[in-house]
């Protein structure tokens, strides 16, 4: 008689096997697709690693549950245990790097700008790395991130609610005192910027540049990562519970295998 726990493990691993094949296929497509942008190719290696990992775990789970091979089921449960530990470590890590908010409201403005915060040194080093930032910047350009800004004119523009990333990457810092023409077109006064800040000089009206290389844009991006990681932490907790349930079901399947004496290849009924 087929045990319910074996059926559940079989079903779950069929799903993860399908997901792994899709991830590997998409990764291969990105590798050979000449029209893929730099932003899209960023996902190639992570997808390939994820796909291969899921494929190996799924095959172990399927063989262990369908054919009741106890040895493979042991390996499957060991890998799930490592995943549970990894999810716990990631949760602690996410809490440690999500520091206080660095964005601040401006008087009379509907949007926020950022100031330098006490971000982890490794995080600043990773994001500010020239190669990494070029990839991030290419994603901002490819998704036309700044083309979604409101098109209001004059004083109306300052009333719009912009995110800290939009405010810091798509327009020059307010303290620079540049003259407004439209959301992404500002000109430097004859007298020069109001303050001798490097971001005021970096600003460009070229739509693929704007303030993407500004320090304020990078800091805003870090701030956005912090907010996203809070959401990821919730998803991570849900995933942790799911994996824990699968692990418990897997333990039941292993106990069934042992109780029935299935140590060799023996497909069920």
From TrEMBL:
Membrane topology term: Multi-pass membrane protein
Chain segments annotated as transmembrane: 7-32, 47-67, 74-97, 234-254
Gene Ontology terms: biological process: auxin-activated signaling pathway
InterPro entries cross-referenced by the UniProt entry: TET_plant (IPR044991), Tetraspanin/Peripherin (IPR018499)
Gene Ontology CC terms, in alphabetical order: plasma membrane; plasmodesma
Cellular compartment(s): Membrane
Domain of life per record: Eukaryota
Record's keyword terms, sorted: Membrane, Transmembrane, Transmembrane helix
Record bears the keyword Transmembrane helix: yes
Family: Belongs to the tetraspanin (TM4SF) family.
This protein's name: Tetraspanin-8
Gene that encodes the chain: LOC107781800
